[in-house]
Design brief:
three-stranded parallel beta sheet; five-stranded mixed beta sheet; D-Maltodextrin-Binding Protein, domain 2; globular
Length: about 270
């Protein structure tokens, strides 16, 4: 009898121990519908210099990365039962963070170009964009032809950098962050910046000495989610993203973040 009780206690303890270990294992692959969210975590890498897509908000005293892309990422990961970590790194280092598996996906207003597709996989495009020239008001730098002989700022590693390199006769100045480009433009060290329309809209609204003019797009434009090549995530993410596009949820976020009353419009220029 004593022996039986001993065995029973032993087995019960073993079962409890095994369940505790399983519940705590962060790599636990139990897939599920949200009930298991604490055990599955994904890391998104972004370059939070791009309001209203992603930027650092200091509202309320603490720093938080918020924006259109962040809301989409939160909605998708929540639906799939993952918790979300966000890493802020330079735009130019985003793709290598996927290749080295330091991040599970990238959302950074990133355009799915053929060149990038050689190294990473993309979702479908969830938001379209146009390129613009941002320059001092009255400088008359409103079209590509006018950029001849000028110093033109672009973000390092962006499609705008590729574009600037292709335009004959200008000197591209590549910097890490969009806010640095805006500063250089205001002090006159560069003459113009090529950046996307929604971002240009915000920066020119908060810097009334600047204006922007849309230029014709070359090649693919817009934003998509990037994953490491061969990642298991796209088959999970893509249907949720598609549903968000079709149900009007993305449109709702467009109004929230790109509308005139957006939190980014109220935000002081990011520095
Ligand atoms: N769409 C452009 C690209 O993919 C620029 C994106 C810049 N994004 C950022 N978070 N700074 O190259």
């Amino acid at each position: 009898m004593k022996r039986l009780r001993f065995l029973l206690t032993f087995f019960l303890t073993a079962i409890v121990a095994v369940s505790i270990v399983t519940a705590c294992n962060p790599n636990s692959t139990t897939s599920g519908s949200g009930s298991n969210s604490s055990s599955k975590s994904l890391t998104m890498a972004t370059s939070a210099d791009y309001p209203p897509f992603e930027f650092v908000s200091t509202a309320g005293g603490n720093q938080e990365i918020i924006g259109f892309d962040v809301d989409i990422a939160k909605a998708i990961t929540e639906k799939l039962g993952y918790s979300l970590q966000i890493q802020n790194i330079d735009f130019n280092a985003l793709l290598s963070s996927l290749q080295s598996k330091r991040a599970d996906f990238v959302m950074a207003g990133m355009t799915p170009t053929e060149e990038r597709k050689k190294n990473v996989d993309f979702s479908e495009i969830y938001y379209e964009a146009k390129n613009t020239i941002v320059a001092k008001k009255g400088s008359n730098l409103i079209a590509v032809a006018g950029l001849k002989g000028k110093n033109v700022g672009v973000q390092l590693g962006s499609i705008q950098e590729e574009l600037a390199k292709k335009i004959q006769g200008l000197t591209p100045v590549s910097l890490n962050r969009i806010s640095e480009l805006v500063q250089e433009l205001k002090t006159g060290r560069i003459d113009a910046v090529i950046m996307e329309d929604t971002v240009a809209k915000g920066f020119t609204a908060s810097n009334p000495d600047l204006e922007f003019n849309v230029i014709p797009n070359e090649g693919v434009a817009g934003s998509a989610i990037a994953f490491p090549k061969g990642s298991a995530l796209p088959p999970e993410f893509n249907p949720v993203l598609k549903e968000m596009i079709e149900s009007g949820k993305i449109e709702e976020l467009v109004v929230k973040w790109f509308g005139d009353n957006s939190p980014a419009a109220a935000q002081k220029p990011a520095t």
